[in-house]
Specification:
2 copies of one chain form a homodimer.
Chain A (H helix, E strand, L loop, with lengths): L6 H11 L2 H10 L4 E2 H7 L4 H13 L3 E6 L2 E6 L1 H12 L8 H12 L2
Antiparallel strand pairs in A: 1-3, 2-3
Helix pairs in contact in A: 1-4, 3-4
Chain A binds a DNA duplex (30 and 30 nucleotides) through helix 4.
DNA sequence: ATAATAGTTAACCAACTCGTTAACCTTATA
DNA sequence: TATAAGGTTAACGAGTTGGTTAACTATTAT
């Protein structure tokens, strides 16, 4: 599994994912590429509105774009998506009750 | 694997992860719980500074807290962390070159 | 009872976000 | 060539973020 390391990239990726419409756009793009105007239509946004979201997604490298004439196609960047999955999955937390763990820890800290 | 559904929660979780210091705090907490002041010290922040970050993490339910006297202990909320992993991993993208996929798609769209 | 420790809250500020409308550029189409 | 279609850019405004210092509350130690 590929993995992200650059903090600036990670900031950008998670900021991009922190907005419902951008997650919805990615969800769409997971099935098929789309044009800028179709995305605007489908997500109830003005063209400048969708444009900004796409810019955020592109700067996070979560999507790639390709111009064909005056039409601009957008697709999911699977490589980056897998990198995000890699980052998230590197933290394996064991099963167990947090409250209990914290109680024990506090108890162990008492003088 | 548990999974997140509420868009507001997802917004909060990814916004929380979109800041380097908060990711560093979570990284710390993955090993052991800590107090507010120790976290402030370790991450070079004033007490109000760390406090705000912890509030963001707590609202995203990524950490839990427990007061013991005047000391406030913070721990990773493993359940929520696993839920985030679940959300991320539900999108399985097959291996393959995006550029190529997009090229093919554009070609298939041409009149 | 006084003082120190641990944390919280308030107030402030510069920078950024997310939406808008209006103006503009580029590439078809009539 | 003019017009339309598809995108981009600029400018603005309400709201949020991330840090600070100063003031305050609550708990422990002397």
């Amino acid at each position: 599994m590929p993995k992200l390391h650059d903090p600036v990239q990670l900031d950008a990726v998670f900021a991009a994912l922190s907005h419902q419409k951008r997650r919805a756009i990615l969800h769409d793009l997971a099935f098929r590429p789309a044009t800028v105007s179709v995305l605007a239509e489908d997500h109830g946004l003005s063209l400048p509105g969708i444009y900004k979201h796409l810019k955020v997604l592109e700067e996070a490298q979560l999507v790639i774009r390709k111009k064909a004439g005056r039409t601009n196609f957008v697709a999911l960047n699977k490589r980056q998506w897998r990198a995000v999955q890699g980052w998230i999955m590197q933290y394996h937390t064991e099963w167990g009750n947090d409250e209990e763990t914290l109680e024990n820890y506090i108890a162990s800290m008492r003088p």
